[in-house]
Amino acid sequence: MANRTVKDAHSVKGTNPQYLVEKIIRTRIYESKYWKEQCFALSAELLVDKAMELKYIGGVYGGNVKPTPFLCLVLKMLQIQPEKDIVIEFIRNEDFKYVRALGAYYLRLIGTSLDCYKYLEPLYNDYRKIKRQNRMGDFELVHMDEFIDELLREERACDVILPRIQKRQILEEGNELDARVSALDDDLEEFESSSEDEDMEKDVPDKRANYDLDKPRRSPSPRFRRSRSRSPRKERENRGDRDRRERRRSRSRERHRDRDRDRDRRHRSRSGDRHDRHDKDRERKHKSKREHRDKDRSHRDRDKHKSSKSSSNEDPEIAEANRQRAALGLAPLRM
C-alpha cells in the first residue's frame, strides 16, 4: 500500500508515473532505509522540508545498488504527484540549490517539451556548485548549469532514462517557442561596436571626412542577431547577470592576490632560513679553524718548554760538545 501511486494521479507518457524509474532501481528504493524511515506517509507539504535537508544529488551507487536520498525523493514525487505550482516554486527557489535541482529533475521527467525549455533554460544562469555522488560512491563537484544542460541534452541522468523531448529548433519553427536569447549577446554587441570604432579611427583623414553619416551601420551577423525590444524583466535579469560576473571577477582577482602574497611570504621565509643556515656553517668553520690554530700554538709552546728545560739540565761540557758536533754536521751526544 505504501508503495502504490495515489488514486487520482494522472498517467505520464502513457504509463504509471513510478514506472519512469526502472524496476530494479525502484525495488532498491523500496528496500532502502531512507525510503522506509523518511519517505513513509510523506505529503507534498512535508516533502519541502525533506528537500531542504538534501546535501547532494545522485542516482545509485555501490555494488549492491544503493539509492541516494535525492533519487528516493524523486520517486516519492512521482508517487504522490504534487501540483505543478509546487514544482515551479521548487525551480524558482534561489536559497536552496538542491531544492531547485529536485524540482528541475522532476519536471524533466513528467513535463512536456515546452515546459522543459520554458522553466529549465533560465537556470543556465545559475553557476553555483553542487555535490554529486557517482556510481563508485565518491563525491564530485559540478555546477547547476551543467546539471541543467545534462537534463536537456543527455538521454540518462542520475541513472534514470529520461523521456524524449522535441528539439528546440522544431518548436521554434512551429512558433511555439521564442528564439533563445543568450546572456553573452550584450558582450558580443559591445565587442562588435568597439571593433567598429577602432576601424573608424584607423581610417585616413580624407576618408573620414567623406564618410556618409546617413549610411546605416553594418548590422550584426545573423548568428548573433536578436530583437532590440526587451521587456523590463529581461533587462533586470541581464543586469543581474552582469553584476554577478563582475563579483566573480573581483573575487578571482582577490584570490590571485592572496595566493601571490602567500607565495612571497613563503619565499622570504625559505630564503631567510637558507641565510641563517649559511651563517651558522660559516661560524662553525671559523670556530674549528681557531681551535686548530690554538692547538698548534699550544703544541709548539710545549715543545719549546721541553727543549729549554732539557738544555738547562744538560752538562756545560756536553752542551759545548754538542754545539761543535752540530757545526760539523754530527749527531748530538745524549745524556
TrEMBL record:
Organism: Owenia fusiformis (Polychaete worm)
Family: Belongs to the PRP38 family.
Record-linked InterPro entries: PRP38 (IPR005037)
Pfam families named in the record: PRP38 (PF03371)
The protein, known as: Pre-mRNA-splicing factor 38
Signal peptide region: none
Compositionally biased residues, Acidic residues: 190-201
Protein purpose: Required for pre-mRNA splicing.
Keywords, ordered alphabetically: mRNA processing, mRNA splicing, Nucleus, Spliceosome
Bias type Basic and acidic residues, positions: 202-217, 232-244, 270-282, 291-301
Subcellular location: Nucleus
One GO cellular component, as annotated: spliceosomal complex
Region Disordered, annotated ranges: 190-335
GO biological process terms on file: mRNA splicing, via spliceosome
Biased composition (Basic residues): 218-231, 245-254
Main location class: nucleus
